[in-house]
Design brief:
Distance between the termini: 35 Å
Strand content: under 5%
CATH topology: DNA polymerase, domain 1
Helix content: over 70%
Number of domains: 1
Shape: globular
CATH architecture: Orthogonal Bundle
Number of strands: 0
Largest sheet: none
Number of helices: 6
Order of helices and strands: HHHHHH
Radius of gyration: 15 Å
Structural class: mainly alpha
């Protein structure tokens, strides 16, 4: 791979890492969820765009109670705006 391609990839990776949402941030954003549910969400999605893209069904698979899934989805969507 050429040097310039590696530089671009390094910049993209750095930007991606800086754009991540940490576990503690999620924990504060979603106080009504269990630690397990928050850790499962954080395991599959770290950037605001990934978090906003989670569906209600996927959130329920990750441990979010069905009655809270729409509220959680709305809160996560606000991260990317």
């Amino acid at each position: 791979m050429q040097r310039s391609q590696l530089d671009v990839r390094d910049q993209q990776n750095a930007a991606h890492k800086n754009n991540r949402v940490g576990y503690d941030q999620l924990r504060k954003l979603l106080p009504g969820l269990t630690d397990h549910a928050v850790s499962q969400i954080h395991r599959v999605a770290q950037t605001p765009e990934q978090l906003a893209g989670l569906s209600k069904v996927r959130l329920e698979q990750l441990g979010v109670p069905a009655r809270q899934s729409q509220d959680v989805k709305n809160m996560l969507a606000r991260l990317s705006s």
